Every structure is written in C-alpha cells, then in structure tokens.
Amino acid sequence: MSTIKKHLPGVVVCLAIALPCWFAGQALPLIGGPVFAIVAGMALAVFWKQPTRGSVQHGIAFTGKKVLQAAVVLLGFGLNLAQIAQVGMMSLPIIGATVATALIVAFALHSVLHMPSETSTLIGVGSSICGGSAIAATAPVIKADDKDVAQAISVIFLFNVLAALIFPSLGGALGMSNEGFGLFAGTAVNDTSSVTAAAAAWDGMHPGSNALDQATIVKLTRTLAIIPITLVLGIWVARRERRDPAALEAQQHNVVMPSGKLGGFSLRRALPAFIVLFLLASVFTTLAAAAGVDMMLFEPLKTLSKFFIVMAMAAIGLNTDIVHLVKTGGKPIFMGLCCWIAIAAVSLGMQHVLGLW
C-alpha cells in the first residue's frame, strides 16, 4: 500500500498528460500519441523542474521504467507466431539484411561521430526493428537514460513521417508491384503507424491493391527481432560491466555492487523478465488462435500496450531537458538519416536480387 501511495501522484500526472495526447494521436496517426506525449512532457519540464516536483517524481520515474516494460509485455498479445511463420517467412532474408544494415551503420557512425553508445544503439535498433516499441524494449536492457530515449524517439519520428510521405510515390516511380511495395513498407519503415500510413496511401493510389495486409504481417515479423537483439545487447552490457574495474574488485572481495554493476554474467539480467513475458504472451496468443479463440479478445490488451507507451513517453519527456536535446540533435539526426537511407536501399536491393519486383 505504501508503494502505491508513493507512486500514485506521479502516475496520475503522466496519465493526465497521456490522455489528450492519446486522442491527438488517434486524430493524427502519422505523428502518433507517443510523439505528442514526449513533446508535451518536455514542454512541461521547462517550467516544472525535477527539484520542485517532490514526491511526484517517484511516480514519474516508475511510469518511465515499469509502465514502459508492461507495455512491451502486452505488445506480445498482438503477435500470432503461426500467422507470421506462414506469411512472413519470405520476408526474413530482407528483414535480416535491413536489421543488420541499420545496426552496422549505427555502430560505425557511433565511433566516427563520437556519440554516446546508448543513443546510437537506440537509434540503430529503433530504425531497424519497429521504432518506439523496439526503443521501449531496448532502453532498460542497455540502461539508457531518459534523454537517450527522447533523442532516439525524436529522430525515429522525423524519418517515419518522411517515409510515409515519400515511399508510396517512390514505389510508383520504381514500378513496384503491390506485393513488392507491401514488403518494402514492412521492412523499410519502422513505426507501425507509419507502415500503415505508407501502405494505405499505396492502396489508395492503386485500387484493388492489398499492400496494407502484407506490410502489417512483415512489420509484425520484424517485431520478433526484439528478442534476439535484446538478448545480445544484454550479454554485451553484462560483459562490459564485468570488465569494469570496480565490478571486478567487488567480485573478488564478495562486495555487493550498486544497482547497474553486474560484476559477472547473468542470463536473468541479460534477458530481462519483461522480454521473457513478451515472448510468453506471443506464444499464448498463438496457442489461443490455434484453439479457435477469437483474436478480437486480445484487442483491448494491444490497445492498452499502446496507451502505456504514451504514458511512458510522457514520463520520459518530463525527465528530459529539451534545450540540451536541441543542442545535441545534429549528430543523432545525421545517424538516423544514414540508417534510413541504408535500410531503404538494402530493402529495394534485396527485393531486386530475389526477383520479388
């Protein structure tokens, strides 16, 4: 009960910000509720600094971490693994190539631009997998700060909008087939709302096309990449912290390290519980579908997942210095641009090589 009292005021604040942002996102899906929420949170933080928030800050921090993880778990109820295996298998080579490309580009530019590893990782993962959802899943694993999450979300949003506006016309100019564009949208556009917007625009330009359905399945297949990516990143973080001199000394003297210092590898820490629950939710959904359960029963959970992300983005916005974000935005935007162009080029190139359009 004391824990609830401790966190409730801050959670209510995030809820109050999230509600109007949720409806704004419904009205303008190309922008989306998470972006509205993070911007609203940052705007409020200009006038309401952290030191003046008192006990409310506990709930804001809780929302930015635990509610975000709950959103990732609920995301699993939107994944029918059997459907993905049936329809999305042909997209796996392209998905693998685009994910690898984005991560390699982000890693290379991280060194060249001397950017923080957390920001670079989030931009690479967000560009390659599924935008905000991938960032939400990855941030706790690599122990990213709220400012890193805000920076990555802002960059991903920019190129989401550009992709939704440009790609349908680009596909038409290239003479892509309906199936080819569905595959392109599903592999080269990262956020679900932007994938939907791009594919729907294509269907509007080509009556009788069904690119939206294919793009959605391919996008869901990409979402599964969250599991191996977070596992690899978790192992990397664990080994990096194991090499930390303070961690090694503590291990030798049997000293308990502060939070964040592993002092040795642990699969439980490398693969956090919320990622395991995400996978179990996907398996449960798949078994329920195979048993004939109406998938509409899971729609409220999928909607709740999206709303939790909006709440968490409001909390992250409240913990972000917008002035610092603007001053340091040039390099992350350049990295996002390079990832975006590379992913689109590889997706188109792979389709051409495989003879899909």
Describe it for me?
With 357 residues, this protein is mostly helical. It is built from 18 helices and no strands. The protein is globular and about 60 Å long.
Structural class by helix and strand composition: mainly alpha
Q: How many H/I helices?
A: 18
Rg (C-alpha, Å): 20 Å
Poorly predicted ranges: 250-265
N-to-C series of helices and strands: HHHHHHHHHHHHHHHHHH
Distance between the termini: 59 Å
Number of strands: 0
Shape: globular
Q: Please, what is the average pLDDT? A: 83
Write the layout of secondary structure elements.
Blueprint: H1 2-27, H2 33-47, H3 56-75, H4 81-87, H5 92-113, H6 117-128, H7 132-142, H8 146-173, H9 178-188, H10 192-205, H11 211-223, H12 226-242, H13 245-252, H14 267-270, H15 273-290, H16 299-318, H17 322-327, H18 330-354
List keywords for this structure.
single chain, 357 residues, mainly alpha, 18 helices, globular
Summarize the structure.
The chain has 357 residues and is mostly helical. The protein is built from 18 helices and no strands. The protein is 78% helix and 0% strand.
